[in-house]
Amino acid sequence: MTLADIRAAEATISDSILLTGCNKSRTLSEICSCDIWIKSENLQFTSTFKERGALNRLHALSPEERQRGVVAMSAGNHAQGVAYHAKRLGIPATILMPIGTPMVKIENTRRHSAEVIISGQTLEDAGRFARELCKTRGMTFIHPYDDRLIMAGQGTIALEMLAAVPDLDVLVVPIGGGGLISGVAVAAKSLKPDVKIVGVQAQLYPSMYNAVRNEHLPMRGDTLAEGIAVKAPGEITRQIVRELVDDIVLVTEDQLERAVAMLISIEKTVVEGAGAAGLAAVLATPDRLAGQKVGLILSGGNIDTRLIASVLTRELAREGRLTQLTLDIADRAGQLAAVSALLAEAGANIIEVSHQRTFSALPAKATLLELVIETRDRAHLADILAKLAAAGLVARCG
């Protein structure tokens, strides 16, 4: 794959893909001590960059291949890109998705008239079934990342970013199977050889990290970034990553959650866990990028609303703005009112209240009072705990 391939992909897809903005975030730049430029691929029609590569690949099909249709395996975003553009081009599409794929991604794929089959515990399991289906139905397999036409389509993002901000020093890119970072790295290094390419993986799924560093870190569990939870990176992509990617950073689930919450609260933009991975990496390693111009790709925005609510409330808890308190109080009239009055005087807002009389080790004349309160910050919470203690009430957090 060369810059010419990526230029050709740009010419092929430009009429059908949104030229998303690449804008500076003043607030995130101040927080991270570097200039943060955000490429908002979560604003594509399918809320993901994946439709770039999918469209480029679909355009390469012969008339006979178009008539027979295509099969793809995906944890959600590649599925939507293939389904949407296959429908536009009149190509039948069947999508294999692993068990556990977020419902929002499944429903959005079905909305584009694709046949959706849920099969396999992992993306790799779904991929094996997809290849079998291609053989039995005579359809063409559209790989989500290990395909040069797919990579070339994804690489058009780098062309747009460097056209908008030519003096970017670093591009921070999420890595699943490696299609996005491979295309971006080829395009960016061809145009600006001194630009640094930093990949990001969820700590729970460090597949590319293991492959290029000859490590054997475990891969397991449910990650917020299911879009990049790939156990086996591509054969082509890992060679490009070895050659062109300068570093790979692993981020924790807490860091991913914080990044999702910050992008919602600061940038007023919704991203999924994989889409927030770049910001998570910058927040995790602030010193290494200080003073530089950093480009982040918000690769997708397909996240369940229930999960957004959970991420936001968990972040409030981490910031000390939402706290569960447990107090032992006498089981007699007026005790709850007294606690409520003290909290109100201290400026706390009571969100939830519950008593536990039966399932506790307290004496029969005592009760366990559980409260969820809202405070301004950790300092405010500490002040409230001190006032409760001064009143003879010992509160336990958590």
Chain-wise SSE layout:
Blueprint: H1 3-13, E1 22-25, H2 26-32, E2 35-39, H3 50-59, H4 63-68, E3 70-73, H5 77-89, E4 93-97, H6 103-111, E5 115-118, H7 123-137, E6 140-141, H8 148-164, E7 170-174, H9 179-191, E8 196-202, H10 207-213, H11 235-244, E9 247-251, H12 253-267, H13 277-284, E10 293-297, H14 305-318, E11 322-330, H15 335-346, E12 349-356, E13 366-374, H16 378-390, E14 395-397
Protein name: L-threonine dehydratase catabolic TdcB
Family: Belongs to the serine/threonine dehydratase family.
Pathway: Amino-acid degradation; L-threonine degradation via propanoate pathway; propanoate from L-threonine: step 1/4
Structural overview:
With 398 residues, this protein is an alpha/beta fold. It has three domains: 3-48 and 153-314, Rossmann fold (3-Layer(aba) Sandwich), CATH 3.40.50.1100; 50-141, Rossmann fold (3-Layer(aba) Sandwich); 319-397, ACT domain (Alpha-Beta Plaits), CATH 3.30.70.260. It is 45% helix and 19% strand. It has 16 helices and 14 strands. The chain has helices spanning 3-13, 26-32, 50-59, 63-68, 77-89, 103-111, 123-137, 148-164, 179-191, 207-213, 235-244, 253-267, 277-284, 305-318, 335-346, 378-390, and strands spanning 22-25, 35-39, 70-73, 93-97, 115-118, 140-141, 170-174, 196-202, 247-251, 293-297, 322-330, 349-356, 366-374, 395-397. A six-stranded mixed β-sheet has the order 1-2-10-7-8-9. A four-stranded parallel β-sheet has the order 5-4-3-6, with helices on both faces. A four-stranded antiparallel β-sheet has the order 12-13-11-14. Strand 3, helix 5 (77-89) and strand 4 form a beta-alpha-beta unit. The longest helix is centred in the middle third of the chain and has 17 residues, at 148-164. The chain is elongated. Pathway: Amino-acid degradation; L-threonine degradation via propanoate pathway; propanoate from L-threonine: step 1/4. It is an enzyme of class 4 (lyase). GO terms for molecular function: L-serine ammonia-lyase activity; nucleotide binding; pyridoxal phosphate binding; threonine deaminase activity. InterPro entries: ACT-like_dom_sf, ACT_dom, ACT_ThrD-II-like, Ser/Thr_Dehydratase, Thr_deHydtase_catblc, TrpB-like_PALP, TrpB-like_PALP_sf.
